[in-house]
Design goal:
Layout lengths: L4 E3 L4 H16 L5 E10 L11 E2 L1 E15 L3 E6 L5 E5 L12 H13 L8 E8 L9 H17 L5 H18 L7 H8 L4 E6 L5 E5 L7 E10 L7 H16 L10 H6 L5 H23 L7 H13 L6 H12 L4 E5 L5 E8 L3 H14 L6 E4 L7 E2 L1
Parallel strand pairs: 1-13, 5-7
Antiparallel strand pairs: 2-4, 2-14, 3-8, 4-7, 5-6, 8-9, 10-12, 10-13, 11-12
Helix pairs in contact: 2-3, 2-4, 3-4, 3-5, 4-5, 6-8, 8-9, 10-11
Amino acid sequence: MSAAQWVAPVHAAAVAGPAEALFRSTFGGAADGVWTAPGRVNLIGEHVDYAGGLVLPFALPYVTVVAVRVRGDGILHAVSTHTGESWHGPLDDVAPGHPAGWAAYVAGVVWALRRSGHLTAGTGFDVAVHSTVPVGSGLSSSAALECAFALAVADLAGLPTDDAGRRPLITASILAENEIAGASTGGMDQSVAMLARPGHALLLDCRDGATRHVPLDFDSADARLVVIDTNAPHRLVDGRYGTRRATIEKACADLGVATLRDVADTDTAVAALSSPAAQRVRHVLGEIRRVREVADLLDRGRISDIGDALNRSHASLRDDYEVSSVELDSAVDAALEAGAWGARMTGGGFGGSAIALVPADRVNAVAENVARRAGSASLPVPQFLHAEPSGSAHRL
């Protein structure tokens, strides 16, 4: 029996069924509509979004679906197939830390759209959620939920949902995560969930929000990108992520720059700081250079040549930024040992997922070796996902 456990992607239309069934059983009748948004994997550009850096994520064929119906009493009632838990309460009561748990990502979107004037008070929603994005994997299940629901609210409220109209929805989703859920993430996850294009990565400039679609055709290089969910839970609200972000913000103040993108010379900046800020800044500035390097290689169709940059990214995240884990390091080392061109942790770290760029004929060998190495070290049994660049949030 194979030691590698693969999670097959499910078409969004099929994922809609459980959400609609839960909606009918909970609320009676049909929803006003069903919307979906994807999880994402970041090819490269980790822990630089909140430093005004460049990132290069793409959407995955693993999605969150929401069935939604408008109600006129200002109440939100949200249920999920994942937890079996529900949240029911007045949207007027939503505030930082309330509601807690997954409902914060839903309620926070309405709170943010109200605060920005895009949604009037008094409107409520019934919401049923179903997802195939592995929770805790670092593949942005939270942003998938936020963006699916934000698009639903926009459609139902008659707001524009073209690329320009999605910018306020991205902002609202970021605020929901930062202010209500209390996770101090940047805007990468929400941007790619709303703007992704099949067959492309999204080069996002986190300083000014500019985007460019970069071709990403693994078949052309006879390659595959394997996502390795280590099953070591990934959490952004336990303080360590926020500590890293606070360190970068203080370093910017100490260096007299608005963002680290304004730093002219890496060596001078690093020399001016003490540990650990110096190491953190060295990672961010080096990672931004690596994103440019990878984007340039992809523009020239040289997918198999990006492996070295992935390896250097992981080493920097492990040693300078200190956000890797024994599970992530094991997965990366085992993938390279089995023939991957490059591998690195992806996402916020402290658990979650790694990625491996693999020749197509080595996919099974890499997965087997990663699983075998985890087993021999008594680590959680990893799961493997197919990373095919997919599309953005939409109505089904």
